[in-house]
Write a structure and sequence with these properties.
Elements (H helix, E strand, L loop, with lengths): L5 E7 L9 H8 L3 E7 L3 H10 L6 H9 L22 H14 E3 L1
Antiparallel strand pairs: 1-2, 1-3
Length: 107
């Protein structure tokens, strides 16, 4: 993948990969599109490193982790100025990236 800017769309392989009420929302919409992203720098860095791999904090990755029931490690946000840029534990990150690999596709 080139390190150029670009647009990308992330789809669920099916509605059923998500818990309710999100699965029902996707069914009602008739689409499994869950995210449209824009990389102004490197598409590889934005999509692969952040959104899919969580090597750097990403709102998309945090949203997927939260939907699946994961939370940041207890106490990890204490005394942090930017508490919105949290990361998951290494074990949880591995579980989330595995889930993403199994259940989402990118175009």
């Amino acid at each position: 993948m080139a390190r150029k800017p670009g647009l990308y769309a992330i789809y669920a392989r099916s509605e059923e990969v998500f818990p309710e009420p999100l699965a029902g929302y996707l069914r009602d919409r008739g689409s499994t599109l869950i995210y449209i992203g824009k990389a102004t720098g490197s598409l590889k860095d934005r999509l692969v490193e952040q959104d899919l791999g969580h090597k750097k904090p990403s709102t998309f990755f945090r949203a997927i982790g939260s939907i699946l029931g994961f939370r940041p490690p207890r106490g990890s946000l204490k005394k942090k100025q930017k508490q919105i840029n949290y990361k998951f534990s290494p074990g949880d990150t591995q579980k989330i990236t595995g889930w993403i690999s199994d259940n989402l596709s990118v175009r």
